[in-house]
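Deliverable D5.2: sample structural annotation.
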Amino acid sequence: MAETSTHGTGTVEALSLVPKAEGRQSMKDFKSDQEVRWCPGCGDYAILAAVQGFMPELGLAKENIVFVSGIGCSSRFPYYMNTYGMHSIHGRAPAIATGLASSRRDLSVWVVTGDGDALSIGGNHLIHALRRNVNLKILLFNNRIYGLTKGQYSPTSEVGKITKSTPMGSLDAPFNPVSLAIGAEASFVARTVDSDRKHLTEVLRHAAAHQGTALIEIYQNCNIFNDNAFEVLKDRQQAEEAVIRLEHGKPIRFGSELAKGVVRDRLTGDLKVVAVTPDNEDQVLVHDAHSPSPTTAFALSRLADPDTLHHTPIGVFRAVDRPVYDTQMTDQLDQAIEQHGKGDLGALLAGGDTWTVVG
């Protein structure tokens, strides 16, 4: 089946190559026979259940879905999915997944990683997968701590964080994963929370439908080494005043009776939160996740204070169409074969660009 997507450079055809599943599937079909081994109360359980519950919606054969992970608590994920998977090496999951997605376009490829795995040793692999727009989905579990290695500060830990490796408080300014992804030209960027299954599933749904790289930051609680890090976003009363739910085409309002809104400061151009009144109601921004410019999406990502998390947007920040790397690579290979025939590896290795070491 051919699907047509429109990009800024014109219309391109993206082939839907993934075989459909035979018969109706359920959450149970995607549960493996492996014992789930995370600390009791870990947010990873909620994410796993949400993903397993969502997978049947794809309508794909389990054999054509792959989960690739790196190193960390979150990276045990492939063991618990009754699909193909690979528990790879530290930080390299996006690179391995890029090779797989590019060479096997009949597969639906998902990456599971954590804030330490993705943003420290894996930082370069992550940003290059995003800028290339490879057709894969990246689930970035962010608990703002190193859990597997027992509680050191991570690239998303707040300044002043007291941990085993920063007994006097962290001096590092934390990464904002959403800001980082938008800055790397990601075509789909979203944020959600582990305990909000309805919202998490909705974001997964949007990501799965996206052609290209989709990054989802998932705020995830580590109840052993960083408990209640996101409590302000989970406690019902606090969350009503702190969580900004982004919905494409709708005014960005939140709080009790939607009394707060996001507007653009006319002097600085920055975004700010205001109390909505009849005088400024028409200034409240309408969320446009499909805007060709990443400017407003980036500004939205900066609203959340890393210390208090008040005014934290969740939902799809950006979802835009642009050429997909693996589709373009396949087109180049097809063109080369059409013009020059199939390549000869032996001739390439022994070609005119070789040289001999003498002595």
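Annotation notes: The radius of gyration is 22 Å. The chain has one domain: 23-250+287-331.
The annotation will be released with the project's public dataset once the embargo ends.
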